[in-house]
Write a structure and sequence with these properties.
Length: about 100
């Protein structure tokens, strides 16, 4: 997260907005005190997400992770630790590209 001041916003608003829309997050500070955050529209929508929708999205993500863990255990029984599981998943994704 990049820390900026109100003066930097005035000087470089266009570039800051472009970066924020691309996913970069900004913390706006005045006198070294955090005042606000600037995030992309997508991140902002997630912050305003309906609590029930947020729970559902998190539940689906956890179910996906559990299924992935089961698959890795089936395919690689010796790969029980998380680090190995992540490496195997990344290798699989790299081969798919």
């Amino acid at each position: 997260m990049r820390v900026i001041t109100p003066l930097e916003i005035r000087r470089s608003l266009g570039a800051i907005l472009d970066a924020a829309s691309a996913g970069e997050r900004f913390l706006v500070e005045r006198d070294h005190r955090p005042m606000a955050m600037l995030v992309s529209v997508e991140d902002g929508r997630r912050l305003d997400e309906d609590p029930a929708a947020r729970r559902d999205r998190r539940r689906r993500a956890l179910e996906h992770l559990a299924a992935l863990g089961e698959q890795i255990e089936r395919d690689h029984p010796a790969a029980a630790d998380a680090l190995t599981a992540i490496r195997l998943e990344r290798q699989r994704d790299d081969r798919a590209r």
